Structure formats: structure tokens, C-alpha cells
């Protein structure tokens, strides 16, 4: 398979005005300017293949949208190379736009006053989609979601969920090679979230569309992405399969046991017994976070069984959310 | 009403509008340009008549009147109708209604900051420039004090009219149309575009019975009159006060009644 | 992929326009109120005009009907900017809120895409009003009427339109650099009121400025001379179509440059 996106050592710097605080500061700002250079994206490289769904993660202000703006051609990198579909995006913005679809969170790109189907028809003309391709696509949409009630509704009358759904459908309408989705499920209810995830998954399978997804919702990541890329403060922290992520800090699993007697006291004893692991207790369970690189969970369990009467037990894998949280908070070692 | 809370809004407004520093420069530049245009226009007008005064106003009087009317407009225009219409259409109004302050006062004090900045950055420079350029044609005496009082009354009347008009947006969904109608009527009837002295007789009488002339014509004639007869001055300010009270009550009442309507209809 | 042809853009515009009109018709109240507002604005302009000429029979050798002709000419020539480029007023809000970014993702010209979103039907009322004034004063002045004259009229009306469009584009585009571009836009909108006066009233310095720096004399004065005073048409009138094209092109470039810069700072 070939790379649809190739990014080599791109960096983007911005000049920003230092604003001063308070009334006095505002007055001073009126007469003097004080700039500083901010590096929003710092030496990032990655290759993305046709048909991949990549989760592009990072805390707020990490540089995600700057990278996406560079990939969509509306921003020129300060240095480095970027190729999307064999074109340099910022030099060929309109040509690049023909091959991509973009959905930006809660900002609709549809015509506010028009019924959805009219927006679709205008988009069909703008992108030069043939009648046959257009009809096929609508048919595909119909098989995936119930769009009939949406088609004749003006966008301004739609709920947020319906609007997001419509925006996603509009982004795929001209069968682009790549679709960028920026927080597509933000603010939606659980059932709408799952509907949208299913839709994205199906369209990716059906059309082999590359999807770049930025999100803060790990549910999106777990449901859709095999590969994730994490950046923070403009720097790349992680780029690999989601399975590897769980082992990123060592393979942690949480062993939970229930014993008779006072849990807090027992937890104290266990803590003394297993000083290398973190032990905590709540009203029901004693939790032991086991680093599998040091000893296997089964060994810990059998060791504990010798000293305590274990009534019940549970084994929990660490969640994607927890790992990401750990990465955001601690960075990469 | 908690005055500290109000002043906090004023302060926030000042800081916010200072961020738009170039905006202030553009306004001053615009006023200067306007000065140039009307200077030449009225010079040509007076030249073609051939007399010193027309309808009791000299060329200089007319010029000062018109420039300061624009400068007053700059800092009195709060775009309240526009904002209210927008808030109503987007539904933001429901959030603003939840604030622990009456909407009418909230809007007023939020805008007061802009007004203060506009006063110092556009009205005052324009005033000073005009005073210097016209070389003492503006009498600088006790009339300045009465002018300030008159302007304050004018601000209050103007805000009431704006708020009243903005309230109409609750019924119509059409902000643009309502706003432009209000603006056109106020600017023409208040004497901001052409001094009321030039209005033909029947029109002048009608306009004098309307509240609009209290917004621009009243403060400006107070300013331009160096030795006013006390009776005339009192009448001008008295009429302003009258309209101030009437419009205040009217706008509050209309808002209250209209608000019931939204609560009934559920926004 | 080849460049999109003019026909392509025309087709798209027609499609959006047809749909837009259809949806506007569902807001009848708004449509009617806005139209009334527009008529109000025009009547108010006319009234100020009339009041002025109640006091002064002529200005700088220009009589009532000649001035009226200029006025009607400016109204008609301002119709396109009102109808097709009204979205410029929304630009600063879209830039401020970050919604502007959506225009960057389509494989069509950004400027076109942005302007195509709004067709302001109110402008048609202004057109009718202006056309009426124009025909009326044309008649009263006893100007020549021939197919050639009509052709000249149309060409020079388009010229005037392009200049105003250029000025407004440039003014709207300033919001990419300064946040509160409203004042700039508002200022330029006032220019069109100044455009109604003959440039000869200004002193030579400002005649130069209003011709070459801020070309408001091209909005009505120079183009209208071709029809109004066919015996003494200055060279500037004849070159005004070229000036118009150049200004329009420059304003378009400025607008696009601003849009590119906007992305640079990020939202």
C-alpha cells in the first residue's frame, strides 16, 4: 500500500502579541507591541497509508489543528516537507481540497437555511460529482443511516446530532481520499455517538477512505482507530498501534480482591508485603496495580492466597483513557 | 442596584474595547474625513447663498454642530438593537436573563465601558480639534457644564429608545430592518444629519414635539450657546428630562410585557 | 485538474441563489420589514436632500435636478454591492468566531464561495427607488436619450458599482488584520453618502485625495458626468472603467491575502 500522506520534519511557528493584564496593561498595549515566537508544531514526521483510520490525539493547544491545517493546505509550514496525495497542499490548496473532506466539530459547513438535499446538490456541482456516483453515494448513505427524514430539513432546524451526521455525510459525498474529522462526537448523546462511529467505520470500510480523527473521547479511539498519534506542545509523543499503547508504561493490570475483615487494615498489610506495587482500598475492593514486567498477576494472586482468604476477585486491564491521561500528565520517559 | 458590580462591567468593557486599538484610530480618522467633507460641502452651500448666516446659523456654527453630532453619535451608539436582536435569534438571551441582574441594566453597564473609551478616544480628540480649528468658536464657559448634563440625559433617552426598539425584535425576527428604521429616524429627526434650524416650518414643529431632538439637537444647541437665557436653557433641559422619564418608563414597561410573552411561549 | 471556468461559477451561483430565495420566502415578516427599512433609508436620504434644497437653491453651480440625478445614479450603482456582497458585513464575526475556516476547505475560489452565501434581496428596493429618481431627473433636465446614451449609462453605472464593491471589499478585509473592522466598514459605507456631491466643491488637495487615494469621486461623480454634462466630460470620466477594474482587482487580492493570513494566526 502507498502513503497518502507523507510528513517529514514539519515545524510551524507563530508570532503572537504579548498582551498585558488589567486596565493599565491594555493602555500600554495600545502604544507598544511585544511579540514572542511560539512553536505550535515542532519537528513532526509521519506517514499515513490509504484506508487507515488514525486517531490524532493531544491535550488542548497541543498543535493538532495546526497540523491538520497544514495537511489541508490552508497553512504553510515554517519548515519541513508535506505531501498529501502527491501534492504539496499549501501550493495546491484547491486541488488538494478536491481530494479531502473536512468536518470541524460543531461548526457546520452546510448552507444554514437550505434543506440538506439542496446542500448536497450544490456540493455535487462544486466537486463535479457525476450523477451516477452521486446516486450511488446517496444509496449507500440510505443503507447505513436513516437519512430520509434529514434530507428535506433545513440545517438550522436540526439537532446538534443530526447536524453532525449531515456534516459527516457531506464530507464523504465526493468520495474524497482523506477525511479529516475534528472532534466529531463532541457534545453528542451516547446513542448518537455510537451511530456516528458506526457510520465512520462503515464508510471507511466501504470506500477505503483514509480518516484522520482528532478527539478527546477515548470511546471514539477504541471504536475506530488501530493506530494513534499523540502530540503535546507541538512535539510527537507516540505513533503506533493502539495495542502497543497499553504496554507503553509497562503492562499494567489492576488486580482487585475481596477479603473478610477490615479492608483498610488488610490493605496496609499487603502494602508492606508488596512494596513495589501501589495498593489502595475502597469499601468493597482492595486494588493492586501490578506491573507485569516485575511479576505476573497470577504469582501475586497465589502469594496473597497464602496469607488471606480471598472471597472474590476481578482483573482489570488499564483503559486507553488512563494511558493517555498518564502520557498527557507525565510525558514520555 | 449594586454600583460596584456595574462598574466592574464598565471596567471590563473598557479593557475589551482597548484591545481593538486600531478601531479607535479608524474612528478618529473617519471623523476627520467627515469633517473635511462637510466643511467643503457647507462652505460651498454658504458660498452659493452669499449671506453670512442662514436660519440663524453661521458656517462655523453649522460645521461644529455637525461634526460634534457625529462624534456624539460615535459614543452614544451602542448597537443595542443589533445585540438584542442577535441574542434573541440565537437564544443567548435566555442565558443573559439568568444573570443576577436586570437585563436592561446588564446591557447598559456592559456597554458603558465602550462608551467611556469612545468618549476619551474619539469624542474628546474630535472636540479639541474642532475647538482649535474653529479658533474659539465654541464658547468655553458654564455652557460646558450644562452640555455634560444634557449629554447624560441624551444618553439615557437614546438608550431607552434603543432598548425599546430592541424589544420589538422579540416579536419580529427581523433585526436588520428594525435597526435601520430606528437609526434612520433618530438621525434625521434628531438633527444629526442636518441641523434642525434648517428644517422647513411645519416639519420643524413636528420634530420639536418628538423625543429625538433631545438626543442631538438639545445638547449641541446648549453647547453652542455661550450666554443662554436661563428660561431657554431650563426649557431645553426640562424637555430632555421629560423625555428621559417617559422613554425610561415606556421601555421598561414594554420589556416587562414582552418578557411575559417569551416565558409563556417558552422562548 | 483544470481551472474552474466562469460558467461553472455562474451555475453554482444560480443554484445557491434559487435555493436561498426559496428559503427567504419562508420568512415573510422579516422580508417585509427589511424592505420597509430599506425604503425608509432611501426616503430619509431623499428628505435630507430636499430639506437642504429648501434652504439653498443651488450648490456650487449644481441645481436641484442635477444633484438629484447624481443621487439617483449613486443609488442604482450601489445596488450590486448591496445585493451580491452583503456577506462582507458578516465577515468580521465569522473571522472572530473562527467559522470562517469553512470557506478554506472547498475546491472553489474562497472569495466567491463566501460572497455567494448571501443574496440581499432588499437591494432591489433601492434599485427601484434609484431608477425612479434617475428617470425623473433625466426627464426634468431634458437630457438627450438615445441607445448610445443608454449604453454609456449602463457602462458607467457598472463602473461606479465596481468602485463601491472594491471599497467595501477592502474595508471588510481589514478585519483580517484588525479585530474590530466594523468601524472601517461603517466609514466606507458613509463614503457612499459623500459620493452624492460633486467633487468640485472640494479644495484641490482633497479633490486629488478623493480621486486618487480614496476614490469616492468615482462612485457617482465622474461616471455620471458622461451623461449629465456630455459637453464637458473630463478625461478621468473616460478612464473610470479601467480604474474600476483595477480597484476591484486590488481589493480582491487584498481580501484573499487577508484570508490566507487569517489561517496563519489560527483560530
Describe the structure.
The complex is a heterotrimer of chains A (333), B (267) and C (267). Chain A has 333 residues and is an alpha/beta fold. Chain A has two domains: 3-246, P-loop containing nucleotide triphosphate hydrolases (Rossmann fold); 252-330, 2-Layer Sandwich (Alpha-Beta Plaits). Chain A has 13 helices and 13 strands. In chain A, helix 8 links the parallel strand 6 and strand 7. Chain A is globular. Chain B is mainly α. Chain B has one domain. In chain B, 79% of the residues lie in helices and 1% in strands. Chain B is built from eleven helices and two strands, in the order H-H-E-E-H-H-H-H-H-H-H-H-H. Chain B has helices at 3-19, 21-49, 59-76, 80-90, 92-97, 103-133, 142-172, 175-189, 201-208, 217-224, 230-265, and strands at residues 53-54, 57-58. Chain B is globular and about 60 Å long. The model of chain B has no long low-confidence stretch (mean pLDDT 83). Chain C is mainly alpha-helical. Chain C has one domain. Chain C is built from twelve helices and no strands. Chain C has helices at residues 6-25, 28-55, 64-77, 79-84, 88-97, 110-116, 123-141, 147-173, 182-194, 204-213, 221-228, 235-265. In chain C, helix 8 (147-173) runs antiparallel to helix 9. The longest helix of chain C has 31 residues, at 235-265. Chain B binds chain C through residues 19-20, 22-23, 26-27, 29-30, 33-34, 36-37, 40-41, 43-45, 47-49, 54-55, 172-174, 176-181, 184-185, 187-188, 193-194, 198-200, 203, and chain C through 27, 29-30, 33-38, 40-41, 44, 47-48, 51-52, 54-61, 177-184, 186-187, 190, 194, 197, 201-203, 206, 214.
